[in-house]
Write a structure and sequence with these properties.
By secondary structure, the protein is of the alpha+beta class. The protein is 38% helix and 15% strand. It contains nine helices and eight strands. The chain has a five-stranded antiparallel β-sheet with strand order 1-2-3-4-5, with helices on one face. A three-stranded antiparallel β-sheet has the order 6-7-8. Helix 2 runs antiparallel to helix 3, helix 2 packs across helix 7 and helix 5 packs across helix 7. The two termini are 21 Å apart.
Length: 337
């Protein structure tokens, strides 16, 4: 799950055999209907913009429940430190209390520093999202890292080795991954859009077909039906978006039991909503540098500019959307959407 986020991609190495076998095709594949699966955040004739792999986990269980646990440990340890110092000042068991207070102080602050460096510094006070922009006209890919100098990786579309990447530990988790090569060695790596388990490989293929058609064939080829011209994802860190994200994060099995497991289900959803909201609202909005924006100018009356939702899934209830979704599933041979 944490591949490419708190566990950085492995660089300065040759391509592995499995990566070569998993290379994504640059030609149209029969029976695959393009779909962004909640990863697209902007679309027009000049560029299409996606979130990166880590978005699904931002402010969720690792941060919310890990944060609660870390807070309890910190407060508990701090209580023992303060109590020992208080006892020490009263002259009770001076040596024992002094040693205990010193050891507990080291443990408490050492644990806090470790937890911050290991995870929380990579989620809190960073950026609301990390966009990846595909410029069709200049055939470039821009990968946002931070707002400062050198904060954007820019690489030609044709020079990226695109393949189905897998988790470092959970090998069943797959994503669209790009390697930037220098000679025969990997210089940089990034992952586009949400990850899925390998039983949903059809989603990876559909998302890749969306990107491939946009870059290779043009924006008019991406949507095969007028109702396919929609963006599902909103990156605004609002209560509504955080609640929708937390609710969907529970998974279909848990959601099906929401009334049986009430109030546990909604307690967890509530905590995750709060955790994601606090996390994202501690973060800055990513800003593309002027040189990138200059290369990505959009015509005022662009016919291929898709409307962006004010909240996640805003357009899902448009008339005919459900029927179109069922039709897409049938056309893809009953694949799960």
């Amino acid at each position: 799950m944490l591949t490419g986020w708190t566990k950085p991609f492995k660089l300065d190495r040759p391509l592995e055999r499995e990566e070569r076998y998993a290379e994504l095709p640059k030609q149209r594949q029969p029976g695959i209907i393009p779909d962004s699966f909640g990863s697209l955040i902007s679309f027009n004739s000049t560029y299409a913009e996606f979130i990166d792999r880590r978005d699904r986990l931002r402010g969720m269980a690792y941060t919310t429940f890990g944060g609660l646990l870390a807070l309890l440990i910190f407060l508990g340890g701090l209580f023992f430190v303060v109590y020992s110092i208080y006892d020490l000042l009263r002259g009770h068991e001076v040596v024992a209390n002094g040693v205990f207070a010193a050891v507990m102080s080291v443990l408490v602050f050492g644990f806090t520093w470790f937890a911050w460096r290991r995870h929380f510094s990579k989620d809190l006070f960073t950026y609301t999202h990390y966009p990846i922009r595909f410029n069709r006209k200049d055939r470039k890919v821009y990968v946002f890292r931070h707002n400062g100098p050198g904060g954007v990786l820019t690489v030609p579309w044709d020079e990226v080795f695109w393949h189905v990447g897998r988790g470092m530990e959970q090998k069943f988790l797959c994503d669209i991954r790009g390697h930037v090569l220098k000679g025969s060695r990997i210089k940089d790596t990034f992952a586009v859009g949400h990850y899925f388990d390998d039983s949903r490989m059809d989603r990876i293929q559909a998302m890749w077909e969306f990107i491939r058609r946009y870059m290779e064939e043009g924006p008019e080829t991406v949507a095969e039906h007028p109702l396919d011209r929609q963006i599902d994802k909103s990156v605004t860190p609002s209560w509504t978006n955080c609640y929708i994200h937390a609710y969907a994060h529970m998974g279909p099995g848990f959601i099906a039991l929401r009334f049986v497991l009430f109030p546990l289900f909604y307690t967890i959803v509530g905590l995750l909503t709060l955790g994601r909201w606090l996390t994202l609202n501690s973060c800055k909005t990513p800003v593309w540098p002027p040189e990138v924006e200059a290369e990505c100018q959009v015509e005022p009356n662009d016919p291929h500019r898709w409307e962006e939702p004010s909240y996640q899934g805003e357009f899902a209830n448009r008339p005919g959307s459900l029927e179109r979704q069922l039709e897409r599933m049938r056309l893809q041979g009953g694949g799960r959407r």
